[in-house]
Amino acid sequence: MSETDDLLALAIRLAREAGAIQRERYETDLTIATKSAAVDLVTEVDHACEALVVGAIERERPDDAILAEEGSGVDRPGARHRWVIDPLDGTTNYAHAYPRFCVSIGVEREGEPLLGVVYDPLMDELYTATAGGGAFCNDRPIHVSTETALDRALLATGFAYDRRKSERDNLESFAAMLKSARALRRDGSAALDLCYVAAGRLDGYWELKLSPWDVAAGALIVEEAGGRMSDVHGGSDHRSGRTVVASNGALHEAMRRVLLDTGAAA
């Protein structure tokens, strides 16, 4: 096996193990706290999943850097590999027993995306991709949709945690897209939305004010499924999460025009 194969196997194992924790604790009493805002939740399951994933990487890949949402990762400047982890993407959903959440694990090599793994433990769907190796769901190749008209597209988006106080709240873009597309969805898990674009279930997705762990795995899965990722301006800053546009490629410019016209890049 190559080093990439070894890394992918480890990421898959850890995603499945964290997903098992989520499945076991789903619809049970949880300890719920807030972080940056009253709508930004964290549970003991987030922390348990992150401890499992980060602990295993520290034991098995001690020279790798780790960026993890709940802060337990270790930054190692100069490390060849960096793991970017969202241990439970969709925490608000999870806290409300709404069945849309997942584990997201991305790995970078020398600053470039190398692989992505997203696991939905309730659907038992494992999305994977490696750079140049294609994208898969449960080992079945997946591909983005072929839709070319925005008015026939099914799109998804989300809203930032600071939406109660920030004027840059995505509402104007949401309203414009609602009138431009066939339908919109807002399901509360960026990683799964990206995977659904990759699988052709969604034709496109956009969001503002995400973080690297929200998109590290899903962005590569979209690109390896034949889709396109960018920031609102069409560049590669989507990796930071500040503005994210994902599409089947054919709809990308039409989506960007709507977003730019409604101030999403402000």
Description:
The protein has helices at residues 3-25, 44-60, 91-95, 171-180, 190-198, 212-224, 252-261, and strands spanning 32-34, 41-43, 65-68, 81-89, 102-109, 112-120, 125-130, 134-137, 140-141, 154-156, 183-185, 204-208, 228-230, 243-247. The protein has 266 residues and is of the alpha+beta class. The protein has two domains: 3-141, Fructose-1,6-Bisphosphatase, subunit A, domain 1 (Fructose-1,6-Bisphosphatase, Chain A, domain 1, 2-Layer Sandwich); 150-261, D-Maltodextrin-Binding Protein, domain 2, CATH 3.40.190.80. The strands form three sheets. It has a seven-stranded mixed beta sheet with strand order 3-4-5-6-7-8-9, sandwiched between helices. Strands 11-10-12-14-13 form a five-stranded mixed beta sheet, with helices on both faces. Strands 1-2 form a two-stranded antiparallel ribbon. Strand 7 and strand 8 (134-137) form a beta hairpin. Helix 1 (3-25) runs antiparallel to helix 2 (44-60) and helix 4 (171-180) packs across helix 7. It is globular. 45% of the residues are buried. The mean pLDDT is 94.
- Ranges where pLDDT stays below 50 over 5 or more residues in a row are none
Shape: globular
Query: Rounded to an integer, what's the Rg over CA atoms?
Result: 17 Å
Please list the strands of the largest sheet in the order they lie side by side. 3-4-5-6-7-8-9
CATH architecture level-2 label of the largest domain: 2-Layer Sandwich
Helix coverage percent: 25-40%
Quickly list its features.
single chain; about 270 residues; Fructose-1,6-Bisphosphatase, Chain A, domain 1; D-Maltodextrin-Binding Protein, domain 2; 14 strands
